[in-house]
Amino acid sequence: VLVGSGFSETFPSFNIVYVVDVSGSMGTSSGVNIGGTPANETYIQVTQAALQNLNSIYGDYVAQGGQVTVHFVPFDSAVHAAAPYNANYTPAGAVSIIGDYTIANSGLSALVGGGTNYGNALTATENWLTANLGNADQNIVYFLSDGAPSDTPNYAAFETFVNSNGVLVNAVGIGNATATSLNQIDNTGGAEIVTN
């Protein structure tokens, strides 16, 4: 769009959904030392650090004039749907929800416990996206888990929903996770497994 003697740049808007496994196994040692203190962080601490790095990229995008809405779906045997996780955030607001991996029971690490019910997480993700698809130009899901599901998710229904609505789903396996289940969620070319 030409404005005066210069150009006005239009930034696409994004909905970002962080679907994060907070089951009991996420509280076990990862064997990874991120920054020296604390040493040998748990899987959830490693996940928190990764999410903060990713979140900062979206924060930089907002600083340049972009619009980003962040939503959380933390799950174990059930989805943690109560406040503050049921709200929507800017990347700046999402920082405290993710939490500081160096502080015990900070943010997402305070939720650790229970099983790994993918089905509940996928349903909650689909429900939020259904209500918010029209609020952004692009919808992106990051699904992070360290294990196989403890239920039998309806992958086909979720796949139909995201593909028909142009939603990008990035599945990331943490530690000892296998790609078998996560590949049925990811639609960007296959799940990534992060081991260190």
Summary of the model, kept short:
With 196 residues, this protein is an alpha/beta fold. Helix content is 30%, strand content 23%. It has helices at residues 43-63, 91-98, 118-132, 155-164, 179-182, and strands at residues 2-3, 6-7, 14-21, 29-32, 41-42, 68-75, 88-89, 138-145, 168-174, 192-194.
Please give a structural write-up.
- Helix content is 30%, strand content 23%.
- The protein is built from five helices and ten strands; from the N terminus they run E-E-E-E-E-H-E-E-H-H-E-H-E-H-E.
- The strands form three sheets. It has a six-stranded mixed beta sheet, sandwiched between helices.
- The longest helix is centred in the N-terminal third of the chain and has 21 residues, at 43-63.
- Residues 1-5 have low confidence and may be disordered.
